[in-house]
User: Fold this.
Amino acid sequence: MNDINQFDVCIIGAGVAGGVLAAYLGKHGLRVAVVEKSLAEQERMIGELLQPGGVIKLHELGLEHLLDELDAQQIEGYGLFMQGDNFKITYPVYKGKTITGKGLRNGKFVQRIRQQILDMPGVTVIEGTVKELQESNRRVTGVKYLAKGSEEEQHISAGLTVVCDGMFSAFRGQLSGAEKKVSSYFLGMILKDCNLPYKNHGHVIVAKPSPCLIYPISSSETRILIDFPGNEAPRKSVELTTYLTEIIAPQLPLQIQPSFMIAIAEGKFKVMPNHLIPAKPFRKTGVAMIGDSLNMRHPLTGGGMTAAFSDILNLGKRLLAIENFADTGPIDEAVQKFYASRHKQNATINILADALYGVMQNEDLKTACYDYLKSGGKHALEPIAILSAISRDEQLLLRHFFAVAFYGVGGIIKPFPTRTKVGRSYKMLKAAVDIVQPLVMNEHPGLFTRSVFRMAGVVF
Ligand SMILES: Cc1cc2nc3c(=O)[nH]c(=O)nc-3n(C[C@H](O)[C@H](O)[C@H](O)COP(=O)(O)OP(=O)(O)OC[C@H]3O[C@@H](n4cnc5c(N)ncnc54)[C@H](O)[C@@H]3O)c2cc1C
Assistant:
């Protein structure tokens, strides 16, 4: 290890995933290089609500302090709103303690993570753009990059290269067989001094045609995300302003409407695509992916950062057990075991996100879901335990998912069944199976789950 360009681990990207991975490995004495395109603070509307399960993972990584000094807001649960009705659900207690989520400014959070790694003696942070993975004998041995402001290509060699270059990853194509699907777009705005109906709660507006999310991200700012289904991005236009004013605004709680109208008038919109990218990494040695480069789900449930932190703990612990990064065998074994086991932590996060989004696109399922959660007790507490990523129990998630569909059948056929009502119920159950089956299949299901879905496929 005399080469100054030789490291144990090289990380591409110092966003949420790459930065936290570097902080974890650096804290434990590994020699880490991080190449990040731009170290300047970004105004981003992604990754602004960290679920309690993500806070717990940061704690397990020994990095919970990264959430300090951000003016982050405690998130205690969710308020749900539909057609003039509303109720709230509080996050469950974890090991006897109340763990709140955090609403935060993503740009500020990323800068705090970066400051931490810049201060670590074992971590070298380079502002530059990785152009290529460096390979030798079909093994990735590091990266080739251009430092900011330089035209001269430089290299870094490492036992393991971890690709954390986010949703528009330039390397996913060579490292994964996953197909990228855009489910919808979020249009985001910041509401100033907005008086939320449920203080310190996320707000889900079960609106028509698609949901809106609202949560505080600092003591004076509240994020609103408005979903636009389909794969066409909304564009700034008179039609868009009319849509927001006449269709969306009236569906928002009354006390949010004034700050929403001001935000529309200011016109500071941001638009982001919402992707579904299952994790399907190829077996390539010397390299791993973490974060959005590897796996994405709909952001409706705010699970992305929690999934990334779960992966960092999984892979990170395995890497810390390696004695010598010149020895490739243990590195490859660590990456393989990481890929083989990661779905146990992330299946519920991934399935719930796109299943809930699918439910929100179906009028009968949407109503069933709202009524089911509103009925309270276990119907509310267990699903919110999964949403918060405090519980990662896939069977529990599937039980509640189908319980919602059958609850909906009960609602439709009451007070007595007719042919039309039975037909509508069948359609709704089929829709539920169609929504969840491909999502479950992406997550390495066990034999039992696979058999159940095969049977469901025969019935529907
Ligand atoms: C609209 C929206 C809302 C979301 N809301 C939430 C939420 O509330 N809660 C939640 O948990 N998750 C949310 N997510 C998901 C979450 O934001 C992501 O899962 C998370 O940011 C992924 O982190 P990452 O490090 O993989 O990517 P990023 O944080 O995007 O980091 C990637 C980094 O790589 C750098 N980079 C890229 N290419 C190169 C290169 N060639 N060389 C060097 N550097 C490079 C970039 O500059 C960037 O800094 C949301 C996503 C979207 C789209």
Notes: The pocket of flavin-adenine dinucleotide is lined by residues 12-18, 35-38, 45-50, 129-130, 164-166, 170, 186, 272, 274, 291-293, 299, 302-306, 308 (CB under 6 Å). The CA atoms of residues 26 and 135 lie 24 Å apart. The chain has three domains: 6-70+105-177+277-343, 182-275, 362-459.
